[in-house]
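Hi everyone, sorry if this is the wrong subforum. Our group has a chain we'd like a structural model of before ordering constructs, and none of us has done structure prediction before. Sequence below.
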Amino acid sequence: MRFDLLFDDLEGQLESQLAVGGEQQRAEEERLRAARTPLRERLAALAGESGPGIRLRLIDGSAVEVTVATVGRDWLAAQLSDGGECVVPLGAIASLALSAAQIAASRERMPEPQPGRPGALTAKIGIGVVLRDLARRRVPLDVLTRAEPAPVHGTIDRVGADHLDLAVHERGAARRASSVLEHRVVSLAAVTQLRL
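Answer:
Right subforum, don't worry. Here is the predicted structure as tokens:
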């Protein structure tokens, strides 16, 4: 009978230690997962969220309020609070201002993109592909860089490995040789935002 009490006590202690060990292991696994989570994944978790937008603080010191629409390998596309659209290189983001609910949503585990499912290919597309598509469509846009306080308006003519050729022209004017004020070669590393 005494052995029964002894074994019951030992069993209770072991179960308690296993429960504590399991909680500690789960907490450590969550810390490791958080340590390995890139900003891209946290932004992807917020893509398509309705409700208040997020405020991006860019490396040039500017801030922009957006609703994230799509997140690619090294860029995001978003709706601006004023109704416009923009493309932002992830490297141009200095910080995010999020609500408590957005923080929680951004920390949720994202499912691995499955081939053939929506978003699986977009997650692999680099900003160069997006810029080449804008150039092909001849979309007029504002290019904002760290080097200039005001946006430069024009149409992308070509996109290189680390730069783009921009034909600068007046807003509202079509990109024609006669309307081009100047040609600029812009380093992609300097671009903070492209507004469509």
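For your construct planning: Residues 177 and 189 are 27 Å apart (CA to CA). DSSP finds four helices and ten strands in the chain.
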